[in-house]
Amino acid sequence: MKNLPQKIRRDWHYYAVAIGLIFILNGVAGLAGITAEGWRQYALGLVTWGLGFWLAGMIIRRRPEQPDAG
User: Quick one: 56 exposed, middle or buried, by C-beta within 10 A (0-12, 13-18, 19+)?
Assistant: First the structure.
């Protein structure tokens, strides 16, 4: 994990929760019977990604950056 940028190493849990929420939201949309064809499929994907990252931001509190000791 040393090769990853500092921001990703610090916030990996935020991205993990966001991706999990995207899968859940896509499943909910499928169970709700929402069918998307053509450009609507793209729009539904954008909405689920946006909601997933927004909800992850509400759930996960990111810590402010700490200055390096050395």
Answer: buried
pTM > 0.90: no
pLDDT of residue 44 exceeding 80, the answer is: yes
pLDDT at 58: 87
Query: DSSP letters of 45-57?
Result: HHHHHHHHHHHHH
Cα separations in angstroms, 30 against 3, 15, 35, 63: 38, 23, 7, 35
**CA–CA separation, 10 vs 67, rounded Å?**
13
